[in-house]
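Thread: Newbie trying to understand structure tokens

Hi all, I'm a second-year student working on a class project, and my supervisor (Dr. K.) asked me to get a predicted structure for one chain before our next meeting. I've only ever worked with sequences, so writing a 3D structure as a token string is new to me. If someone could post the tokens and maybe explain what I'm looking at, I'd be very grateful. Here's the chain:
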Amino acid sequence: MENPEFKSLKGLRVLVVDDNFITQRLSSHILVQWQVIADMAENGKVALQKVSSDFYDVVLMDLMMPELDGYEATRAIRSMEGNYFRNLPIYAFSTNPDPDKIREYEMNGLICKSPLDVADLYEKISPHLK
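---
Reply by user tm_fold:
Sure, no problem. This is what the structure looks like when written as tokens:
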């Protein structure tokens, strides 16, 4: 994480949606080192509330969560009115996703979280810095 290839992403806003506290803490720790503003949501229902009331550049969406899973949360976000919701980069944040389902639910790709590939995370979120 101290790798000089990882430049600051100051100003980037990321919502991490995951019901696992350890994954939330690890993700937050990495993102903060890059000066990312990171918010957490413990399930898809909370994610919908946060996305509809705040602006994010990227969403990292766990797929298997209580109350509302990541697939259905993504579908709900994509169905909201406005280009922001249709174009918001949402990455499946999972260990064993179904690639066909990721496409079907209009996710932008996959970031494997176990083990978390820090370089892949950086590579996927850094282009969204405005």
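A couple of things are worth pointing out once you decode it. The chain has a mean pLDDT of 93. Helices lie at 21-33, 44-53, 70-79, 83-87, 99-104, 118-125. Feel free to ask follow-ups in this thread.
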